[in-house]
Amino acid sequence: METEFTPWTALAGGALIGSAAVLLLAVHGRILGATGILGGLFRLGDAADWTLRAAVIAGMATGPLVHLLATGERPVLDQPVPTWAVALGGLIVGVGVSYGGGCTSGHGVCGLARLSRRSMVATASFMASAVLTVFLIRHGV
C-alpha cells in the first residue's frame, strides 16, 4: 500500500484548521473540538449555541464544495480500505473520544497550543495508537 506525500495540501489544510481554531476561540471563546461540537448538536436548549455548532459542522462538510469551486475539480478521494473498516474505525474513535475527553482537534490543535498537560498525554496516546495501527495494517500482523 503506497501513500502519496502531499506537503503543500497538508500545509494548507493545517493552516485552515489552525486559523479556524484561533478564530473560534477569539470570536466565541470556544475550543474547536470537532467531536464535542458535533455531539452538542444533539443537545437542544440554547438556540445560539446550536446555531454556532451547526455553522461549524456545515463549514467542515462543505470543504469539498469549496475545493470544487476554487479549482474546478472534484477532490480525489482514495479509500484503500473497505467502507465497513472506515465505519468500524469511526466507531472505535468515537469510543476513544468519549473516554479521552476530547478528540485530536480539541487536544492536538487547541490543547497543545494552550500547553495543556492533559492534551499532551492525550495527543501522545493518539499518535502512538496511530503509528502502531498503521504498522500492524501495513505489515499484516
UniProtKB/TrEMBL annotation:
InterPro entries from the UniProt entry: Sulf_transp_TsuA/YedE
Main location: membrane
Membrane topology field: Multi-pass membrane protein
Transmembrane segments: 6-29, 50-69, 81-99, 120-137
Keywords carried by this UniProt record: Cell inner membrane, Cell membrane, Membrane, Transmembrane, Transmembrane helix, Transport
Record bears the keyword Calcium: no
Subcellular localization, as worded in the UniProt entry: Cell inner membrane
Family membership: Belongs to the TsuA/YedE (TC 9.B.102) family.
Protein's name in the database: YeeE/YedE family protein
Taxon lineage: Bacteria, Pseudomonadati, Pseudomonadota, Alphaproteobacteria, Rhodobacterales
